[in-house]
């Protein structure tokens, strides 16, 4: 599919949403913190909101063109929408909700079989129930099914996991993956959850403060954030200011406080940089024998906090450094607050972003 | 209660019900426009709708008399083109009841519409439903309690309407006599017993209508 | 220093003096007497210094109000029935009761009406669809009109077309507004309105005997002043005013 958003300008409470982008992925994640304008963007695409200026084209058919004062009505756009609050119709049964979009008209997108959707999302047993009797996860799947059954040519999802607790989130993501794989319907997913972006999306559009910071394949954005804000958001655990004191044969020496690190030289020469280190790239070791790792930092453990299946360890290595380790590893090493330990960081794992 | 009195009661209930049904389409449309949109002149319309609730009913009746009389703007048209008279006929009763009770319906329906989450209407549109379908399958069912409560309130008001009515009709049992007109007339001519019987019926009817209205308008616990 | 003192003295004197001088006489009178009585009262007030307060309406309504204890000094009814009603309840000073005036009935139509009504039977025609009468069950003007039509055996044909109104002036207004085809009112009323014309008069022979009795109400707040005004109403000067408005004198 190809979704073109050009000259979008929409004044919001604190900033103006300005977007100019083309999306082609099977699943595109619009990734950014809450309040960045992501929901407003979805509303514009669905035709639920009017922008000061906008040109929206989906697969060659123009949906909105403010220059020509044209905007196709929402119910004729064939764009499915699963909003954050799910908006299931409380006065209709599950079955009636599911059938709502299924009318006697030509499907805009690939036709979707009722039984197939029920099977993929495992909602057969829920059919005759009332909407208010469903649990959070069940409601999510019904809302998803309802949008799919209208045979849309594009599916919009607003924070699909936001209203669920952690164990439930891990259960729903596979369903979303199945929808991506079983039905040939492109999806545009708005989220601030890295996990969703990482597991589902082919490409990412990073939206912050109403402006697009970066677009590209998922791995590019996560491994090479374009600037400090994106890096912070994308989930780089350690982000510290530093200075490049020397560059030699593609390697840069970088100083933070009194600590020196070896990193890959950045593409554009810079003096003041941000040092980005992902928590999972920090190895904690008690006995440091000979190793290929260039950066071996003696550190003291400040705090250990659980994060899902991992532990986030806060270290003082001359600067604040975070490491993500598994529970078994933590037990094996006998990590305790106040301990001294060595932190190992491979040179390519340190990413330098010009300040 | 004599046959004539039952006839008066029957006529009153019938015309009140008819007026409630008549104001429904226009009232709901106006209530929806007030609830969902902003448009120039909106506050003027809101004020006009509230006027019959606070103006002296006889003043409203006088306005109706002027407009719908044979020499009036609308009444003249009806008389000349369609040979239809309004003033002094049952149509004037219907008119007076409608005008005086419509504001209650419109206000209740507006509140009911405002309480329907607009997100639900928007999602319905993304599912391919056009304006009318969204209105009848989503908005109205979800606002139903408030709408019905408003209708019952309007019905109760119409049952008891007097001031505007007496300006536009004479007292003719079988043709234009409502319970309130009959009570007034019978007191005038000294038929107190009849007046008290009609009073009793009036109280019972009003009680039922208002109790029913409160039942529907009472806020339901959020699901 | 002087002005406020003078003002206060004047205020006190007038407050004390007024009740001594100006007495209020409350008169409940039939609606058809509105204009004539107002003129007579205006003259009387200038001469006597008393103030006349009127309550005009259907005689039946007024009688009802007096029955309920309304503070009337005089009752001037458009028919005997309402006066008898009060007399039966011992509410009037029968010594002061006198038949003062007579009147005649006319059929009126809106002054732009093309209808031709020469006699009562014309009222039964199909082209006369609505006829305004003061409520024929109680208000004297309506009672008289009904009596007249019953005598001619036309009442059953005409009754379905009757629009009953609150009092005779309301019937007149209905005709004047053009909302009804015709009405039956007193000749004196027809003269008042410029927007109606008389279609035909009810001849004295066919018409009912219209009498306007007046009397003092027992237990009235101002018995002396009431008697004084009653005498004025019975006087020759008042009689001439009544005649100018088209009433017939019975004394």
Task: Give keywords.
heterotrimer; A: 355 residues; alpha+beta; 9 helices; 23% helix; B: 223 residues; mainly alpha; 10 helices; 78% helix; 0% strand; globular
Topology of this structure?
The complex is a heterotrimer of chains A (355), B (223) and C (251).
Chain A: E1 3-11, E2 16-23, E3 27-31, H1 38-46, E4 53-58, E5 61-65, E6 70-71, E7 79-82, H2 94-99, H3 114-121, H4 136-148, E8 154-158, H5 166-182, E9 187-191, H6 194-200, E10 203-208, E11 211-217, H7 218-223, H8 228-234, E12 238-248, E13 251-256, E14 259-264, E15 272-277, E16 282-285, E17 295-307, E18 310-316, E19 320-326, H9 327-333, E20 340-345, E21 350-354
Parallel strand pairs in A: 3-9, 3-10, 7-8, 8-9
Antiparallel strand pairs in A: 1-2, 1-4, 4-5, 5-6, 10-11, 12-13, 12-15, 13-14, 15-21, 16-20, 17-18, 17-20, 18-19
Chain B: H1 3-36, H2 42-54, H3 57-68, H4 73-82, H5 90-114, H6 118-126, H7 131-160, H8 163-168, H9 179-188, H10 192-217
Helix pairs in contact in B: 1-5, 1-7, 2-5, 3-5, 5-7, 6-7, 7-10, 9-10
Chain C: H1 2-21, E1 24-30, H2 34-48, E2 51-57, H3 59-67, E3 74-76, H4 80-88, E4 92-102, E5 105-110, H5 120-123, E6 131-134, H6 140-151, H7 155-158, E7 162-165, H8 168-176, E8 182-186, H9 187-192, E9 196-201, E10 212-217, H10 223-234, H11 236-244, E11 248-249
Describe the structure.
The complex is a heterotrimer of chains A (355), B (223) and C (251). With 355 residues, chain A is α+β, with helices and mostly antiparallel strands. Chain A has helices at residues 38-46, 94-99, 114-121, 136-148, 166-182, 194-200, 218-223, 228-234, 327-333, and strands at 3-11, 16-23, 27-31, 53-58, 61-65, 70-71, 79-82, 154-158, 187-191, 203-208, 211-217, 238-248, 251-256, 259-264, 272-277, 282-285, 295-307, 310-316, 320-326, 340-345, 350-354. Chain A has 9 helices and 21 strands. In chain A, strands 7-8-9-3-10-11 form a 6-stranded mixed β-sheet, sandwiched between helices. The mean pLDDT of chain A is 85. With 223 residues, chain B is mainly α. Chain B is built from 10 helices and no strands. Chain B starts with a helix and ends in a 6-residue tail after the last helix. The model of chain B has no long low-confidence stretch (mean pLDDT 90). Chain C has 2 domains: 2-102 and 212-249, 3-Layer(aba) Sandwich (D-Maltodextrin-Binding Protein, domain 2); 105-201, D-Maltodextrin-Binding Protein, domain 2, CATH 3.40.190. In chain C, 43% of the residues lie in helices and 24% in strands. Chain C has helices at 2-21, 34-48, 59-67, 80-88, 120-123, 140-151, 155-158, 168-176, 187-192, 223-234, 236-244, and strands at residues 24-30, 51-57, 74-76, 92-102, 105-110, 131-134, 162-165, 182-186, 196-201, 212-217, 248-249. In chain C, the strands form 2 sheets. A 6-stranded mixed β-sheet of chain C has the order 2-1-3-10-4-11. A 5-stranded mixed β-sheet of chain C has the order 7-6-8-5-9, sandwiched between helices. Chain C is elongated. In chain C, 47% of the residues are buried. Chains in contact: A-B, B-C. Chain B binds chain C through residues 65, 69-71, 75, 85, 87-88, 170-172, 185, 187-190, and chain C through 58, 60-61, 64, 129-130, 132, 135, 137-138, 162-165, 174, 177-180.
